[in-house]
Amino acid sequence: MKNVTDSFLSLVHWPSAGSFGFNTDILATNPINLSVVLGVLIFFGKGVLSDLLDNRKQRILNTIRNSEKLREGAIEQLEKARARLRKVEIEADQFRVNGYSEIEREKVNLINSTYKTLEQLENYKNETIHFEQQRASNQVRQRVFQQALQGALGTLNGCLNNELHLRTINANIGILGAMKEITD
């Protein structure tokens, strides 16, 4: 803190102009340097600063003009888009009306097609039932025939004795022998 006070005191006492040297006290030289730099900047920079501000002002004005032109173009495009939207809405209403009538036609066609398909399925069902009835009938006939055949074989086996059995075999051998002589 003492250095700060000494630096301000040294500002009050200017040394005599007889000697030239560097002042190494930073706090004492900064305010002087800053005031000199600010003075030079204000004197020489006033024109540059006003030119910079004028250029900035012109750019801002040009940007505003361009924005206005773009806004007008956007408004025109918006109006065109609204006109196209109205046209499309009218066409959509026409398509909707046409679509409803087309849907009704398709609905009637689908119902008719479904009825035809149902009739065909009913016919297929009836044919299948008839076929299954015939098959079941044939199976019953075959079982009855097999049972009758088994019953007949059982009766024949019960009635046949050895002598009758030998005579049947000899008769069949004779028939086969006669057939052999005919073929030779």
Automatic annotation (TrEMBL):
Keywords: ATP synthesis, CF(0), Chloroplast, Coiled coil, Hydrogen ion transport, Ion transport, Membrane, Plastid, Thylakoid, Transmembrane, Transmembrane helix, Transport. Residues 64-98 form a coiled coil. It is a single-pass membrane protein. InterPro entries: ATP_synth_b/b'su_bac/chlpt (IPR002146). It is found in: Membrane; Plastid, Chloroplast thylakoid membrane. The chain crosses the membrane at residues 32-49. It comes from the Eukaryota. GO terms for cellular component: chloroplast thylakoid membrane; proton-transporting ATP synthase complex. GO terms for molecular function: proton-transporting ATP synthase activity, rotational mechanism. It holds the Pfam family ATP-synt_B. F(1)F(0) ATP synthase produces ATP from ADP in the presence of a proton or sodium gradient. F-type ATPases consist of two structural domains, F(1) containing the extramembraneous catalytic core and F(0) containing the membrane proton channel, linked together by a central stalk and a peripheral stalk. During catalysis, ATP synthesis in the catalytic domain of F(1) is coupled via a rotary mechanism of the central stalk subunits to proton translocation. Component of the F(0) channel, it forms part of the peripheral stalk, linking F(1) to F(0). Belongs to the ATPase B chain family. F-type ATPases have 2 components, F(1) - the catalytic core - and F(0) - the membrane proton channel. F(1) has five subunits: alpha(3), beta(3), gamma(1), delta(1), epsilon(1). F(0) has four main subunits: a(1), b(1), b'(1) and c(10-14). The alpha and beta chains form an alternating ring which encloses part of the gamma chain. F(1) is attached to F(0) by a central stalk formed by the gamma and epsilon chains, while a peripheral stalk is formed by the delta, b and b' chains. In plastids the F-type ATPase is also known as CF(1)CF(0). This is ATP synthase subunit b, chloroplastic. It comes from Argophyllum nullumense. The gene is atpF.
